[in-house]
Amino acid sequence: MRKQIVAGNWKMNTTVSIGAKLINDIIALKNEVPTEVELIVNPPFTHIIPVAEAAKQTTIKVGAQNCSNHTKGAYTGEVSAEMLASIGVSHVILGHSERREYFMEDSKMLLEKVKLTLANQLTPIFCCGERLDEREGNQHFNVVKSQIEEVLFALSASDVKRAVIAYEPVWAIGTGKTASSEQAQEMHLFIRKTLADKFGNDIAQSISILYGGSCKPSNAVELFNQPDVDGGLIGGASLVAEDFIAIAKSFPKSK
Ligand code: 13P
């Protein structure tokens, strides 16, 4: 059975004290979430140590939103995968469309980052997804296929198995416009088929594929009900503990 995951991407929001309150509020509500659902919070770098300290006695995992594509050395302002591993980080979001668009991250760089996370026993949450013009031009499958091929196809089968994938259509991020559950399922199934063609069905069936883009309590039930949607990568709604927990309670009982 694939892991059910709800991951919060706090992006560049909250101060350390507000982040501490947020994680404590999430912890206070956590026992409402079925134990099989993995909860991950991905705060800004500055908050990771206090958030991890607060979450220490719980099963909540703490991830980062980025890491350097270099191992170490003269790269002012960068944070390495090894550094993140040394403070107990478990996951790193990579390839988010905001980083692709505003920080010019391309597949070559993302492959370096993914490899470094894996080498440091971290789980990459690899994001893919098309822009609105690409969907309107009916290019969405080609775009997502290339994003997957250019990075994940360069990994060994045993490494790709350790990744989590997030499908985040750019037109749905922070816009209030969610992909319909049919659109999400169609793309998740496509991603799984793409992985199966390269790595075999067993591996493709074992990889959790999360949906991201205006996911909230009101649409999570329908999205998570889709057979190939294994959870969500949540932006805005992950900043409200009650909403984040409500989303994590949205998996169908049978899954
Ligand atoms: P929103 O949930 O705010 O649309 O953000 C989604 C996202 O980008 C998560 O990584």
Describe what this molecule looks like in 3D:
By secondary structure, the chain is of the alpha/beta class. It has a domain at 68-237: TIM Barrel (Alpha-Beta Barrel), CATH 3.20.20. The chain contains 12 helices and 8 strands. The chain has helices at residues 16-29, 48-55, 81-86, 97-102, 107-119, 132-136, 140-151, 157-160, 181-199, 201-206, 217-224, 241-248, and strands at residues 4-9, 37-42, 61-64, 91-94, 123-128, 164-167, 209-212, 231-234. Strands 1-2-3-4-5-6-7-8 form an 8-stranded parallel barrel, surrounded by 6 helices. α1 (16-29) links the parallel β1 (4-9) and β2 (37-42). The radius of gyration is 17 Å and the shape is globular. The termini are close together. The mean pLDDT is 97. The structure holds 1,3-dihydroxyacetonephosphate (13P).
Contiguous runs where pLDDT drops below 50 for at least 5 residues: none
| Order of strands, widest sheet | 1-2-3-4-5-6-7-8
Q: What is the β-strand count?
A: 8
CATH architecture of the domain at 68-237: Alpha-Beta Barrel
Number of helices: 12
Percentage beta strand: 5-15%
Order of helices and strands, N to C?
Answer: EHEHEHEHHEHHHEHHEHEH
Task: Classify the fold: give the CATH topology of the domain at 68-237.
Answer: TIM Barrel
Tell me, rounded to a whole number, the average pLDDT.
Answer: 97
How is the topology of this model organized?
Blueprint lengths: L3 E6 L6 H14 L7 E6 L5 H8 L5 E4 L16 H6 L4 E4 L2 H6 L4 H13 L3 E6 L3 H5 L3 H12 L5 H4 L3 E4 L13 H19 L1 H6 L2 E4 L4 H8 L6 E4 L6 H8 L7
Parallel strand pairs: 1-2, 1-8, 2-3, 3-4, 4-5, 5-6, 6-7, 7-8
1,3-dihydroxyacetonephosphate binds next to β8.
